[in-house]
Amino acid sequence: MSEWTRSSREKRVVPPHSQTSRLAATGPSQAFRLVLKQVDGLHTKQSEEGKVSEHQLRVSLFDSEHQHFFGRTWKSESHQARESNQHTTVPFNEVIYFHTPLCLSSVVAVVELVSLSARTDISQNAVGAGFGLLHLFSRRPDSGPPHGEGRLSLFYGTPRALLHPTLRDPLQMNAVLSVMEGTQLLYSLQPHPALRPVMHLLPPNILVSGHDLLPGVVPPTDSTADALRRPRLLPEFSCMLESVCVSLAPSMEVFEADLLQMLNCDRHNTNLGMEVRPVVVQERRLHVGIHNGWGWVERPQVLVLEQRAPGAKGSSDLRQTSTDTLSPSTGSVLMLRGSVELKMMRHPAFSVVFQLEYVFSIPLVGDGKITSAAVQRAVFMQCLRWCVWSPFSDPEGPSESVCLQLQGGALPNPSEVMVYTAHTLQTDAERSVIKFKFSSAVEGAASSVTFKRVPLETHQPKKLQTPSQDESRLELEASPLRTTRGPALSLSQLAATSRYPTMSHTVGSSWQQQLPALLAPSPMASAHQLSHVEHPAAGSIAHLEVSAMEREEMRDEKEDECNLRELTFTPVHAPVITLGTHAPGSSRASSRGSLAHLFSSRFPEIRDGLGQVAEVLDPSEPVHFDPQKEEADPLQANTLILQFLAFTRVPQAGVHTDWPSSVHFTFQLYRFPPVTTQCLKLLEPEPKPRPDYPCVLSLINKDGTLSSGCPGLQLQYRVDPSFLKPGERVWFLRYLALHSLQIDVWDSDSLLLIGSAAVELKHMLRQGRSAVQVSHELEVITTDYLQDTSLVSEHAGRHGAIPAISVYTTVKGRLHVRLGNMGGAVQKGLSSSPLLPPSRSHIVQPSQAPASFRGGSLSSNMVLNLNAQNTKRAQRLPESDGELAGLLQSRRREVGGVLLQGQSETEEVRQRKIDRMAAVRQREENATPTMQEKSSSMRRKEDRAQHSQDLRLIEAYRERCKAEGITNMLTKAITTNHTLYATLGTAEFFEFVLKNPFNVPQTVTIECDDPELSVLVKAEEWRYFKDLTKTSTPMEAEMFHLKDNSSTPQVYLRPKESVHIPLKYQTFLSGHVLPSQDTGGLKSSKSPQFAHKQKSNTVLAKSIKVFFRAEDGQPLALCQVNVEPTPHVVDQTFRFYHPELTFLKKAIRLPPAADSPPDGSVRLQVRCSDPGVICHAAITAPGEPQDVYLKVPGAASPQVKKFFITVFTDPWMASPAQTWQVYVHYLQRMDVVCVCGTLSWHSLILRGTQAIRKVKCYTSHPLELQVDPKEVFALPALGLQDIRLGVRALRSGNSFRYLNVVDMDTRQLVAAWLLCTSCKQPLISRAFEIQVPVGGGRGSNKKINFTNPYPSSRGFRLYSDHPDLLQFKEEHFQIKGGESYSIGLRFAPSQSPGTEEILIFINDLEDKNEETYCVKVVYR
């Protein structure tokens, strides 16, 4: 018996109830780990006392809703009971693994306790001792997966009682069943995500133990013998089945004739007296899949077989000879065109299962006069034969040529279907067989290895091969990996539904396999030029080049590493063009006429402090940066000015000539907060001489009117010593000299990104001048993704050779900006401002002799000027503790029901004085006291009683807080404060001088409550930071010892010895990403500068305490590090557009470092500010580009995820070489398939929000996309709105379009769609060729005749895929039936020679394409 046969017989399961399966069909399967620990309190009978009893646990899955057991019962090993005090404990400690998609509250696990006793023979007698119901899922739909430990009460009886009709209701269970008092099962149930990689090898609803050997899983190697706790897969490799041939006995013609005769006879017998139409064979299929004895490893492939004669061309290479035995008679055979690719693992149970299936059809209607293709047919399928082949059951390995016997009849088969049995007996010579050639390839080496069978005797007769037979030896033969797949199913699949989802095995539409997340332009003018790479495996662009880095990784991979699954497809990289400050060809300047029009618009002038116009610089001239001039400049303050003057439109395909009508900009300068400007209107020039004249920008007021002030938009940024930290001025000047400012340009109406521009800031360096200004004309650039359908059709027959989507850099417009810098004097005394941070010192010295009070006034200013840590001004307890003040009754005064706490002391003094004045007047008058005076006397008595109570409360509070207050004062005496000005990704290094004050040696433990502050325990890292900060202090190697192999360092100090402790603070979390931790350590700053910083994208402000504890646990010293946030500089901004709720997988490519050492030791290291984003840098060979990989989780549309990436080139990540800002815009995806020139309509569903909104739909290409409704409409709250989308693409290929729904009142984005259009080229009915002269400014006029083929009058419309090159005399015309019409064509002139093909679409009035003409234009 083979391994597969044994496993398939033992692992047969009972399927779940059909209704339960339908309820849970949409949910994923969840994996669990159930630990059955022990049974406590088991009562033993008196007759069994003193005997050694053994018990066993059995677990089954049960559907309480339908009273149905399913799956397979799991049995544990037998365990002996332990008796103590009339109670018995049975330890089991058994672990069960399973996964199920039936995550319903009605699905429970039935645990049965069985008592085992020995019989007279070898067998054992099992008696049920009790059972319990373990609820796997909660009835609450919002509750998570089950987890945790618990105790399960047991009932008397056996689980068969659950099938009783009275127990259908779970509430009646306790009323019917008897609980075993004191007997409980201790268990633990936890989700087990580690089982997910092997879930395809383990069928659902099967309970297995960790010691069960699952085919495809590496056996356990540790002492626990648990292979499923952390399962590892066997290596996976590809194998090919070629020349597949099926021969039916006695012949295919006789076999099918007998089969059809039996089917027709059966239909005659069941439909007596009715007209019965004959059954015909419509299609012959072969199901091929991998089965491991437990279940299908992957769903079988469905392949179409073709009928061929044995001697026909292309038939099987395994032709029968005269010496063949067990072969059918000569006749037609069934052939498979192409080959079949399967994924195998080297295990005896892994087998290939073949299943022959016929598709039959029955005509429903018809009178015999119409063709068979027009008759409606009923289709059904039937399995006829099947077989199993285990290629690795033989130790010598599989053979190359395989011949297997097909079997039928009522035998258990993997698909659990009924199989046809022939009514005639067949001899051994008349058996149905399947033949094929088998080859396997192993990946990961320089060349794949194919196992090929070499016969020992060339003239030996062939025999029927079984899985256990092999008369051959193995020979290793190197061959390339073949990736040919089998053919796809025919159209008959649309009429019948197979048991398995149909799978296409040819390369289909590449558009369905790819979805590149759109990369918005990211200009950059620094030293590093970036490229962007897609992951084809993640549903993105497919490329043609193979990454050399990933080939090396696969080559170096060890064969014994089984925890990673080998993939047949290697990710490839095709860099996207990276935009610099000026792309090639962007140096074009506007004409003098356009510049005269532009600067006659009264833009605000840039003047210096004396009112003189700033010096105008030429942007094309180089800038010579002299740091000494900047240092000697008396004007140390800089006022940076940005002026947005005008925007020049560039004609675009698919949009109107007046697009855009209004714009706004987003950018971030230096470390100032990000800016989103106001909306600006593009003013049309009057009169409009040329379409490329610049449109002056004008501010739009909140009411929609234009501003009456100066045109354009001006922004100012002041940078002076009050803004800069000490020593930061050099870095600021370096930023201006080396960096560029990236500006994103947005369409204010549609909120769509137009493009990005980058401008160099080096011309803003004044170099000793009072003020400078420079004007730039920047190209606004974006990136488009297109794919030619002709390339797709050429590569449609080759697997893995999908053509790359071309990436085009498109100029969307030109932005006119003016930059300026005005110098200013610094006010006297500003350097001593308290807003400035102290000097940056990398050595922190603790206070040697804290200052004490030397007498004088104890005013607040005096105490602050002392700066003494052991000096504290006495205060009343209610003033220093708000909690105590709230408990004191005498401090409460209610006025009009409002509790006053601010001026309570003043009110008390005033009331006391009034009472004294009233008492004096009463004594002088010697009169009897009035009612008011009596009331005042009573109030004074109550106040004295309250004062006495408050004094007692204060005394108790003082005694309780005395120890804490003394401890705090002593702690302050040993506390040293150090302030750090932290920036994202930058490491702040300092050394703390630690001294041992004792006369005995101490081993000091260094503890810190924040992981971002660490001790540099490595001598190499310490030396690197000392050299970087030029800190000349003593240093020791192997100075620290890690306590108990943890991350807590310890240092040994001799008596009265001082050492330098190196500390480093570094954070990668920005202010917009808050970690899930307690925020009690966050502190606020009273500095207005701090408050300004905290609002921008900065790190978090907090206080960190570092304790230096002696051997007795008491602190020797305490360093309190106060982290003050500082905004960081953004070098590059990336914007990605991606479908919602899907992972974005990107790779950003950096070019090879020009200054890398010869050994190529420079390695990129990256960190991300969002903990949920995975990023890493791959190791590449020296001189090759380096890639930074990103994996970003998805979000719902129209959310935008923002995070930062820091790139390091130094080994210890001291300071980031680049900081990138990444925006991911999530959109709803819609796939659109259309034909060029034809208008097709599609439907979108827009969901309403919590409130009613006035919205409008905008598209990125209004001339190609039509929206209904196209005007403003009301979106009902929580309602659904149907939006009709009309698509008329003019160019074939795959492209991306965008649809935004904008709230017209708040200008917010309500919804966004990513439209993935796949446009097919129509059939071309006529072709023409024309020659147009180059130059001269004159085009060419031509005419083409068109005849109306209809007998009636029709109207037609004309479109062109190149409207910039071809224009029509009339875009629509009416023509009578049968008449001709001359279409007037106007070809635009060209300045360069070349050839262009232009399509002319002739559509009807409903925009359906009637004719398509192709005109080849040759420019000479």
Topology:
Layout: H1 3-10, H2 18-23, E1 30-42, E2 54-63, E3 68-75, E4 79-80, E5 82-84, E6 87-100, E7 107-118, E8 124-135, E9 148-155, H3 173-176, E10 179-191, E11 208-209, E12 236-247, H4 252-270, E13 280-291, E14 301-308, E15 333-336, E16 339-345, E17 351-363, E18 377-389, E19 401-405, E20 433-441, E21 449-455, E22 472-478, H5 510-513, E23 518-519, E24 531-534, H6 548-556, H7 592-598, E25 615-617, H8 627-632, E26 637-649, E27 662-667, E28 675-676, E29 680-683, E30 695-699, E31 713-719, H9 728-738, E32 740-747, E33 753-760, E34 771-786, H10 789-794, E35 806-824, E36 843-844, H11 860-866, H12 877-880, H13 882-887, E37 893-895, E38 898-900, H14 904-925, H15 931-973, E39 975-982, E40 988-995, E41 1002-1008, E42 1013-1015, H16 1019-1029, E43 1041-1042, E44 1049-1053, E45 1058-1065, H17 1088-1095, E46 1102-1109, E47 1115-1125, E48 1132-1139, E49 1144-1150, E50 1165-1168, E51 1174-1177, E52 1186-1192, E53 1200-1208, E54 1218-1235, E55 1240-1247, E56 1253-1259, E57 1265-1268, E58 1273-1275, E59 1280-1287, E60 1293-1303, E61 1309-1320, E62 1326-1332, E63 1340-1347, ...
Parallel strand pairs: 25-34, 36-40, 39-47, 48-54, 54-61, 62-69
Antiparallel strand pairs: 1-6, 1-10, 2-3, 2-4, 2-7, 5-6, 6-11, 7-8, 9-10, 12-15, 12-16, 12-20, 13-14, 13-17, 14-15, 17-18, 19-20, 21-22, 23-48, 24-49, 26-30, 26-31, 26-35, 27-28, 27-29, 27-32, 29-30, 32-33, 34-35, 37-38, 40-45, 41-44, 41-46, 42-45, 43-44, 46-47, 49-52, 50-53, 51-52, 53-54, ...
